[in-house]
Amino acid sequence: MNYQPSDFLPILVQLVAALAFIVATMLATHWLGPKRHSVLKDDAFECGIESVGDARTPISVKYFLVAILFVLFDVEIIFMYPWAVNFMGWVKSTSDVAITMFLEMLVFMGLLLLGFIYVIKKGVLTWEK
């Protein structure tokens, strides 16, 4: 299929409109917003709690490891949903593609399980030692 430059015109128009809206909104809030500054108003404020002390308090690395592992395994689960939807379509046709897809998912799940076992053996999910 040969695409002409005019085929991409709607995308370009939408991109320009989105950028124009962003720039216009930022300029409007800057020009129309209040410009009163004071020590109390410019003080850091978070969820109704006054800021006290240093913001650079040490946090356990395990917290970040658990968060990263959650994202990693969550993304792998996201890959499984479209596979399952497509797999059901191929199973109904009983083709060799369904067998190949099933074996590929077994390899994927095996690698996922190996990664999970590695994480458990390293003790990343153990909070207290």
TrEMBL record:
Gene Ontology terms: cellular component: NADH dehydrogenase complex; plasma membrane
Signal peptide: none
Compartment(s) where it occurs, according to its Swiss-Prot or TrEMBL record: Cell membrane; Membrane
Short name of one Pfam family: Oxidored_q4
Catalytic activity, EC: 7.1.1.-
Residues annotated as transmembrane: 12-32, 63-85, 97-120
Membrane topology of the entry: Multi-pass membrane protein
GO molecular function: NADH dehydrogenase (quinone) (non-electrogenic) activity; NADH dehydrogenase (ubiquinone) activity; quinone binding
Keywords: Cell membrane, Membrane, NAD, Quinone, Translocase, Transmembrane, Transmembrane helix, Transport
Reaction catalyzed: a quinone + NADH + 5 H(+)(in) = a quinol + NAD(+) + 4 H(+)(out)
Function noted in UniProt: NDH-1 shuttles electrons from NADH, via FMN and iron-sulfur (Fe-S) centers, to quinones in the respiratory chain. The immediate electron acceptor for the enzyme in this species is believed to be a menaquinone. Couples the redox reaction to proton translocation (for every two electrons transferred, four hydrogen ions are translocated across the cytoplasmic membrane), and thus conserves the redox energy in a proton gradient.
Protein family per UniProt: Belongs to the complex I subunit 3 family.
PANTHER family, per the entry: NADH-UBIQUINONE OXIDOREDUCTASE CHAIN 3
Assembly: NDH-1 is composed of 14 different subunits. Subunits NuoA, H, J, K, L, M, N constitute the membrane sector of the complex.
This protein's name: NADH-quinone oxidoreductase subunit A
Gene that this sequence comes from: nuoA
